[in-house]
């Protein structure tokens, strides 16, 4: 009988804290519907891997190593970058690049809104992170889960758990993080600027050639990002080619759901108390928030800068710059709602969606550049 | 908390190169999209001119 309860003695207060963190993630996922597809598996995984002598992760029993299934999944799905890349196929199949192709100038805002990544890289270095760890933390600013996981894993950081929790939590919190930053940096009159939407005619040929050409350009400039951009664009090519509707639907739904299911619980292997409960985790959570704020500010301020050179009737509503962070489509919706709140006839959705998908491309390019410049 | 100004200063060139790189690649992509749109858009004027010539 005593043997049955002997494992109770192995419970540590750190593990109990991780159970609480796991429970909080589950509550946020269910009650607040914050990125539930990722936060719920991560929350449950956090509890799973923090049970004393949990068989889900690798343990030493009586001198012999027993490999845990979560570690098996990590080594076969994340350590080799497979899961984030497969997820990118699904995301690529979900994205309609139409608004961007009809107004390609919007892409420039996606680029400007990546400033938070590079700013956070410097800030993380200032606070004592090594260059590769700083780069891994900075990529939270990509506001793009698979890119964050891909880059952080490439650099072999020990902070994968904290980085992933921060990246997905802040993506879910975009409607709370962005509005105050946008309001702080814009005047009421700027937020009221109307932008008539004149969709250009985008041919099917352009839609098909776009993913191929972008993969080639980005791949040549930043070879290490070929896998990231290539899988994203492969998914998009399946969507746009018009002859693979079944595959496109499978990529958007079945593949994306299946990978997401295992991604969350697998990441939890990096949420073991000994690794996760450190001051560095708190620093990473804070730096991630800075990255999102500076991304938002970068996009808005760049739009304001461009307005200095534009005629009065051609002015850009600077709020659309904020949608350049890749959190898709939450950021576009936030900007659209803020536009309507200032003027109920100000419809910014198509512009902000265009900028938002630009952010998706730009964040992958930024990830590739980080790999090239730091790796 | 450890503060390392020198490490931060070392990252500034990366920041500069990174932002420059991202704007350059973005610029090339914008030009590519403009070119794709131009090359693949139907030549309405030309075909309507030809139609009117045929009518004559």
Layout of secondary structure:
The complex is a heterodimer of chains A (375) and B (56).
Chain A: H1 13-31, H2 36-49, E1 59-61, E2 64-66, H3 69-78, H4 82-94, H5 98-102, H6 107-112, H7 115-126, H8 131-138, H9 145-154, H10 160-172, H11 174-185, H12 188-191, H13 204-221, H14 226-241, H15 245-267, H16 273-276, H17 279-307, H18 330-342, H19 349-374
Antiparallel strand pairs in A: 1-2
Helix pairs in contact in A: 1-2, 2-15, 3-15, 4-9, 4-14, 4-15, 7-8, 7-17, 8-9, 9-10, 9-19, 10-17, 11-17, 11-18, 13-14, 14-15, 18-19
Chain B: H1 5-40, H2 44-55
Explain how this protein is built.
The complex is a heterodimer of chains A (375) and B (56). Chain A has 375 residues and is an all-alpha fold. Chain A has one domain. Chain A has 19 helices and 2 strands. Chain A has a two-stranded antiparallel sheet with strand order 1-2. In chain A, β1 (59-61) and β2 (64-66) form a beta hairpin. In chain A, α1 (13-31) runs antiparallel to α2, α4 (82-94) runs antiparallel to α9 (145-154) and α8 packs antiparallel against α9. Chain A is globular, with a radius of gyration of 22 Å. Chain A starts with 12 loop residues before the first helix and ends with a helix. Chain B is an all-alpha fold and 56 residues long. Chain B contains 2 helices and no strands. Chain B has helices at residues 5-40, 44-55. The longest helix of chain B is centred in the middle third of the chain and has 36 residues, at 5-40. The N and C termini of chain B lie far apart (85 Å). Chain A binds chain B through residues 100-101, 104-105, 107-108, 110-111, 114-115, 117-119, 121-123, 125-128, 131, 134, 200-203, 205-206, 209-210, 213-214, 217-218, 221-222, 279, 361-362, 365-366, 369-370, 373-374, and chain B through 1-5, 7-8, 10-12, 14-15, 17-19, 21-30, 32-34, 36-37, 40-42.
